[in-house]
Design a protein that fits this description.
Elements (H helix, E strand, L loop, with lengths): L12 H13 L18 E10 L5 E3 L6 H13 L11 E6 L10 E5 L3 E6 L2 H18 L3 E9 L5 E7 L7 H13 L4 E5 L15 H4 L18 H13 L3 E8 L4 H6 L4 E3 L8 E2 L4 H17 L4 E5 L14 H10 L4 H18 L3 E5 L12 E5 L5 H9 L3 E4 L2 H4 L21 H6 L9 H6 E8 L7 H8 L2 H10 L7 H17 L19
Parallel strand pairs: 2-3, 3-5, 7-8, 7-16, 8-9, 9-12, 12-13, 13-14, 14-15, 15-16
Antiparallel strand pairs: 1-6, 4-5, 4-6, 10-11
Helix pairs in contact: 2-3, 4-6, 8-10
The structure holds acetamide.
Length: 530
Amino acid sequence: MQFSNCQQNQPTMKRIFPFLLLIAFCNCQPEATQTWIVTPYPNAVTVAPGGFDFSQGVHLESADPNLEGVVSFFQKRMEEIGVNVDNESRKKIHLELAAGDEKKQEAYALKIGKTRIQLTASHPKGIFYGMMTLWQQLRLSKNMSVPRGFVEDVPRYGHRGFMLDESRHFFGKEKVKQLIDLMAVLKLNTFHWHLTDSPGWRIEIKAYPKLTTVGGIGNHTNPDAPARFYTQEDIKEIVAYAAERQVEIIPEIDMPGHATAANRAYPEFSGGGSEKHPEFTFDPGKEGTYHYLTTILEEVASLFPSEYIHLGGDEVHFGNEKWKTNDSIQALMRREQLSTLVDVEHYFIRRMADQLTQMDKKLAGWDEIVESDVSKQGSVVYWWRHDKGDQLQKSLDKGYATVLCPRVPLYFDFVQHDSHENGRRWDGFGTLEDVYAYPESTHKFTEAEAKLIEGIQGNLWTERFDSDIWVDYMTFPRMVALAESAWTSKDNKNLERFNTNLLPFHNFLESLGIGYFNSFDPTLTPEPEH
Ligand code: ACM
């Protein structure tokens, strides 16, 4: 990068005149150095004085047909923020795929000069993230310019997730799309969609229509609320929307527990429940149950391109006491030599995992699946019980790929400030700083263990939250901290810089009409009314 040259000679008037003219046209100050304000902060940044100015438009230049989707996506995004995308522009962003590490498809490099930006990656995902870095800088800084220099960036984790529970309360297509948009801005790449649970079944299954016409009725606060669910057309639309933003959707169909809504629709497959959790389980003693659930999963598998389907598998003990007296389950126990109800649960999970394998899918499940001895190659464990560190250890010792989403600090239905009343607390709660400090605040993994950590995820359960306003307030800004914890390496994290960059992010959220908790001054953004 060159500074403007302003030498002062001992001139005669004749010699000085052209020089004065030059001064009139050149700014003698060295150009200011700009700073990146993007979150997650890129992993290697070298900033040179001056900026690449977008105000006169830019040409997104690429000859690669594999990049057509990314180019057309960012053409629209750039135009939305007032950047004219114009093939005749002298300013160019040259997008190029180059051979690179197969495992680093999301990595990208930016070389930013005065009139040309070179963006290189080994895969369209990396090009997408490089463009997102530029877009976020323009959108947040609002000054139509990005810093000159170099960015070399690669995510810390391959799984950067957010889970939304739409069984307890249903928020609908537009809200889900908005959350996916924000995930993409923050380079989060996995949307875990909790679509079935006790209060309501939210995904249309053509072979079993009552799952939604009956099972879709009700929510956590009102068991009689009219049926709300996603049709298969809705799901296809949302999956395509997410794919355009490099977000993969992993659907969760929870089993064998949390099945009350399904059992309202098809009671013949119920394994009963408990007083507090009636009709809570599917019946693992009946062959018909496996056929029923396999048919459901086949439809789910055809809708979601992800290699994973999440089968839950959590908290079966909440409502499996009828299993003790259920004839077919007792017969199953004798036949398969299962000595406890937990063994029955694991038998069920193994059988359903086998069905997934036949559909060319892998099993995702909560950390209860660790003991079921499902295959290591075909399964990923979501460690959620923060009070059971031994369960995480077991998952790693057994060699399971593992996602970290412990209740504290990554359940976003926990309060985020001591003054807050709505939300859970249990061994504390999850402040913004706690999310930012995770996971190195809590874990010291060996090299072998660290290789099994797929990533981290924030989970928003919605027993207590029934409106978009609440979803936003509980999610933001924790999702912003989650994104940096998931992307930016431990050594490159810096809370002070994160907080500085959070201020323009707050403004961005405000411009979208998204309410958030202001961690700098809790009095500014009190909890919403219920
Ligand atoms: C869970 O929170 N029951 C996974």
